[in-house]
Amino acid sequence: MRIDISVIIPVWDEQARINDAIENLRDQSYPGTMEVIVVDGQKDGSTVGCIRDSKVIKIISAPGRGVQMNSGAKTASGETLLFLHCDTVLPENAFQLVQEAMQDKRVNAGAFDLSIGGRAFAYRIIERTASLRSRLTRVPYGDQAIFIRRSVFFRLGAYSEIPIMEDVDLMRRLKRERGGICFIHKPVMTSPRRWQKEGLVGCTLRNWMLISLYLCGEKPEKLARFYKNNAD
Asked: How far apart are CA 188 and CA 147, in angstroms?
């Protein structure tokens, strides 16, 4: 059977939210065909072992978001791959919006605008800044639910299996090829848990610093060590 969209969800210790994430996908109104692939980076498969939906494709992979998403992509049958973080919820009619965007043959990939599930006004500033930045640079981040033609994804060499910035790296490679990247105005909603855990100002400034250093040529391995040390 022809599959339109493969949704690939890399997970690590997401037992508490994985079934809600899958149910949100199943609740989408979409006349086409879609498959869900969950890739667990833990050897014991603790997250995929909790999945109640028998139609979900479950994979256990070596850890690392880029590694896990590549594992899912190799299994995927969809003409379009949509990479979704477990704590990010797609807007209503998201799959239809993706299909409409991909009908334009000039478009090879895309992403959604960003919203954050918190009431603080500072979140509205972060949302608007992130959406504006991605549109100006044509480089979306992973929490914006990046989607890409399967053929283009593998032609580019898939995600680089680096510890951080794999999403930015892929989009920059596509941009260098002048591959069309579109943005959907309806935003995804991502969890505010990172900002709540690490502090809103500190988390935001750290993220800005990391991307700036990466764009200046700093190695992802060094950035990952810095991220871990400051997130613990």
From this structure: 13
Q: How far is CA 163 from CA 27, 64, 87, 178, 205, in A?
A: 33, 6, 19, 26, 20
Strand 34-40 with 5-11, pairing: parallel
Residue 79 exposure: Cα atoms within 13 Å on the Cβ side: 13
Q: What are the sequence ranges of the domains in the chain? A: 5-190
pLDDT in tens, 8-67: 999 999 999 999 999 999 999 999 999 999 999 999 999 999 999 999 999 999 999 999
pTM: 0.94
Q: Give me the half-sphere count of Cα atoms (radius 13 Å) on the Cβ side of residue 38.
A: 27
Q: Which CA distances in Å does 1 have to 8, 73, 75, 149?
A: 18, 17, 15, 18
Smallest Cα–Cα separation from 3: which of 88, 95, 69? 95
Q: Give the whole-angstrom CA distance, residue 187 versus residue 111.
A: 9
Cross-strand partners of 184: 112
* Domain at 5-190: CATH code: 3.90.550.10
Quote the CA–CA distance of 145 and 89 in Å, as a whole number: 9
Distance (Å, rounded) from C-alpha 66 to C-alpha 165? 9
Tell the residue number behind the tokens 């299996």, with chain if given.
161
Question: Rounded CA gap, 9 and 211, in Å?
Answer: 23
